[in-house]
Amino acid sequence: MSQVVEKPTARPVTPLGILAKQLETILQTLDKMSADELQANLNQAWLLAAGLDPYLEECTTRESPALAALAQKTAQEAWNQRFHEGATVRELEQEMLSGHVEGQTLKMFTHMIKAKKVLEVGMFTGYSALAIAEALPSDGELVACEVDPYTAEFAQAAFRESPHGGKIRVEVGPALSTLQKLADAGQSFDFVFIDADKREYVKYFQTLLETDLLVPGGFICVDNTLLQGQVYLPEENRTPNGEAIAQFNQVVAADSRVEQVLLPLRDGLTIIRRLP
Predict the structure, then answer these.
(1) Per-residue pLDDT tens for 60-101?
(2) Element at 250 (helix H, strand E)
(3) E strand or H helix at 219, and its extent?
(4) How far is Cα 219 from Cα 12, in angstroms, rounded to an integer?
(5) Which Gene Ontology biological process is one annotated for this entry (predicted)?
(6) How far apart are CA 224 and CA 126, in angstroms?
(7) 3-class SS at 77?
(8) For the sheet containing 168-172, what is the strand order?
């Protein structure tokens, strides 16, 4: 008679795994801890969690002066006021900026795959577009889709201050309409970055494949695919955007035309490769 051998439980080795284990231990022994012990354990967990993002920033190549200036300008903009004045078509916030680490990731990825034609779906103030453009060759091009005329002009003003801004062409209008226009014109791209309306993610993905906007062997990077953890929380804890991203992740995982990996970078970054 064969004996079932139980696999030993692996100890957590990632910062998030260790943090989860620490919090689990606190919950299990809470009634046995003194106030000082509880404070010490919570402080240790807080240090582990709070130190991660600053450390990633510290160990990542510094952003260019043009990107730093754009990030600062975005942070200083009165976005809530602009919306109430009617200047923007939707409510915006500085946190929508991709930021230093993700920007450098996209830039590095552009170098790695030697991308020459890039499509961005959702530009905001142009940080990610400019980061990618910095990695494009002199004859490379990035087409950025942006629905908001105010942010489009905001971004273009920043592009004019960068030696790489001339590689970026901005298309203002609803992203799906722009995608169809590009497809009708016979355009194709070897790299696409999606960071737009979360409820349209599935349509963006399907359009890119069905119209051949994404070349066989091409890549898509999709932002916010963890959406603040909502995608793996119970459904009742999800916002409409959280539910939309959870559905998108399932659609991609079930699609035999692609292979993908979801990275816990910032708010989740999924890298998708269209199979040849």
Answers:
(1) 999 999 999 999 999 999 999 999 999 999 999 999 999 999
(2) helix 240-254
(3) strand 214-223
(4) 31
(5) methylation
(6) 17
(7) coil
(8) 168-172, 141-146, 117-121, 189-194, 214-223, 269-274, 258-263
Q: What share of the chain is helix, strand, coil (3-state, %, to 5)?
A: 50, 15, 30
Find out whether 171 and 123 touch, Cβ atoms under 8 Å: no
Distances (CA, A) of 32 to 25, 27, 38: 11, 10, 9
Residues 91-105: tens digit of each pLDDT: 999 999 999 999 999
The rounded mean pLDDT for the chain is 95
Q: Helix, strand, or coil here: 218?
A: strand
* Nearest C-alpha neighbor of 241 from the set 199, 202, 200: 199
pLDDT at residue 1 is higher than 60: no
- The CATH superfamily holding the domain 63-274 is Vaccinia Virus protein VP39 (3.40.50.150)
Q: pLDDT, tens digit, for every residue of 229-266? A: 999 999 999 999 999 999 999 999 999 999 999 999 99
Gap between the Cα atoms of 184 and 34, Å rounded: 68
Per-residue pLDDT tens digits for 22-48: 999 999 998 899 999 999 999 999 999
CA-to-CA separations, 52 to 4, 18, 19, 55, 56, in angstroms, rounded? 40, 13, 11, 5, 6
pLDDT of 5 over the 70 cut = no
Nearest Cα residue to 266 out of 134, 125, 59, 99: 99
Domain segments of the chain as ranges: 15-50, 63-274
CB-CB contact of 182 with 192 (8 Å):
no
CA atoms within 13 A on the CB side of 80: 1
